[in-house]
Amino acid sequence: xxxxxxxxxxxxxxxxxxxxxxxxxxxxxxxxxxxxxxxxxxxxxxxxxxxxxxxxxxxxxxxxxxxxxxxxxxxxxxxxxxxxxxxxxxxxxxxxxxxxxxxxxxxxxxxxxxxxxxxxxxxxxxxxxxxxxxxxxxxxxxxxxxxxxxxxxxxxxxxxxxxxxxxxxxxxxxxxxxxxxxxxxxxxxxxxxxxxxxxxxxxxxxxxxxxxxxxxxxxxxxxxxxxxxxxxxxxxxxxxxxxxxxxxx
Amino acid sequence: xxxxxxxxxxxxxxxxxxxxxxxxxxxxxxxxxxxxxxxxxxxxxxxxxxxxxxxxxxxxxxxxxxxxxxxxxxxxxxxxxxxxxxxxxxxxxxxxxxxxxxxxxxxxxxxxxxxxxxxxxxxxxxxxxxxxxxxxxxxxxxxxxxxxxxxxxxxxxxxxxxxxxxxxxxxxxxxxxxxxxxxxxxxxxxxxxxxxxxxxxxxxxxxxxxxxxxxxxxxxxxxxxxxxxxxxxxxxxxxxxxxxxxxxxxxxxxxxxxxxxxxxxxxxxxxxxxxxxxxxxxxxxxxxxxxxxxxxxxxxxxxxxxxxxxxxxxxxxxxxx
Lengths: 249, 321
Ligand SMILES: Cc1cc2nc3c(=O)[nH]c(=O)nc-3n(C[C@H](O)[C@H](O)[C@H](O)COP(=O)(O)OP(=O)(O)OC[C@H]3O[C@@H](n4cnc5c(N)ncnc54)[C@H](O)[C@@H]3O)c2cc1C
Ligand SMILES: Nc1ncnc2c1ncn2[C@@H]1O[C@H](COP(=O)(O)O)[C@@H](O)[C@H]1O
Prior knowledge:
The complex is a heterodimer. Chain A is of the alpha/beta class. Chain A has 6 helices and 15 strands. Chain A is globular and about 65 Å long. Chain B has 2 domains: 181 residues, 3-Layer(aba) Sandwich (Rossmann fold); 121 residues, 3-Layer(aba) Sandwich (Rossmann fold), CATH 3.40.50.1220. Chains A and B meet through helix 3, helix 4, strand 9, strand 10 and strand 11 of A and helix 3, helix 4, strand 5, strand 6 and strand 7 of B. Bound molecules: flavin-adenine dinucleotide and adenosine monophosphate.
């Protein structure tokens, strides 16, 4: 069985975001790019499943819709342990465009399980995984916190408000992962980095598809007013302020 | 033309966020000079449906089908799209919660309708249609233009507010056509925590970090939360180390919360944690280190040891002063 992990290439989580061209573009200068944190967890889990010889997962591929600046991130995914990377060579215009491109690739190159992250940390769309499942007309499991194989059956846990649900499912499906799917993302080892150089990174052309939305302008939040300090001896005053000034109690 | 709001119920009941969504849909419909329709899926009593009319629904469409008790984004998207087509609606709004996040992308593909997720306000402009949303995990905002004829928005919690707008009730039933082969997922078990305030819904959140030193020190956190009717939460290392469950992890890689009041106790205020709390109306930080970065995002701060500050605070709250 084959697993495909969708990888979004995003600025490192500590990046200070700046804009260019009258706030219409993100200023890429000095940005360090990483695998979107949830995608890293999804990839780690996919590799764990492949390494476990008691099941029939034998290939893990990663896919990204993006321009050449994604290549370093895809190489990192190969170094972590993916077998093959595919880059669909287009600017990721919106979630609909990205999902449509990946869906088209999958239609010609089927996978049993497709994993995406719950959200990309740049545009916070939480959309690509769900859209992909609709393009592929297959089930999607959102908020997936566990993916296991039990006697050949695929078992999935998903978070529901205030609890969790355990599901049984047949491939193909799209799993939209969140925290819990695995604990720590795997870090590339030296050997992995060496091997990654020889693994295939295939660049494919996009299909003709129109995006449905676009960003017209960015804005930075206003600086917050300074914090009002209250001494530990005067906690009654804090409670009063929360009631009368902030009006949140 | 019309605007449709998807009113999700939990065991037959609506929440405050549903009323906020209906209020928002009504506002959009007025701006667009059109009708507000509310769609409810699953078994909900008529008295509960009627509550929605307090926030301005021209028509409530109720789809009751016991097969729809299983929450499946695939089936729900199918039902919603049938209603959208029948009513010739042009704008669909959902709450930005677990189910809204799961359904809206599928609906977007079905209807070829552009989706703006987690919007924060009414549109900045109607033609072209431009809405504001958070990007880069709260470090910035973007104005997104939806270019398709049909449009879908999910509304961030606590971003519009609840606005009463009492109208007469008009409930209509609808029976969707569903093929059996989309009911494929088999549920083995469902677990839900009893009597716990759910983090995503909570108006007040008491969140604690590594400053608590050990999993055994959580009692004062629980006590303050229960005095306030608040949900408990934590920073990432706390859930990574298993001191608390993953469902409590707040931040860029955990949950994003937007309560009225957020207590950050023994949390340093790393940028990834702040990403998950920046939409809180009011933040109170309690920390031994006066230089902790959390104080630069907090509204009120107390420098002190959590193990002594929390019990004092709890007793003041409990004494009802
Ligand atoms: C890719 C990535 C994603 C991440 N995502 C998240 C995320 O989603 N959420 C998240 O929280 N973190 C996230 N992190 C981790 C983040 O960078 C910080 O490491 C983490 O938030 C620190 O947790 P903390 O504040 O509990 O602990 P610490 O940073 O160790 O802070 C503990 C604080 O407690 C104070 N303290 C100590 N003793 C006491 C006492 N007795 N009473 C009161 N205060 C006391 C200290 O002064 C200190 O400020 C992420 C990191 C990365 C790299
Ligand atoms: N450009 C992209 N290429 C491949 N996968 C992507 C891309 N953008 C988003 N994804 C996937 O979709 C998930 C959700 O992203 P988003 O809908 O943008 O919040 C991410 O965690 C990725 O798994």
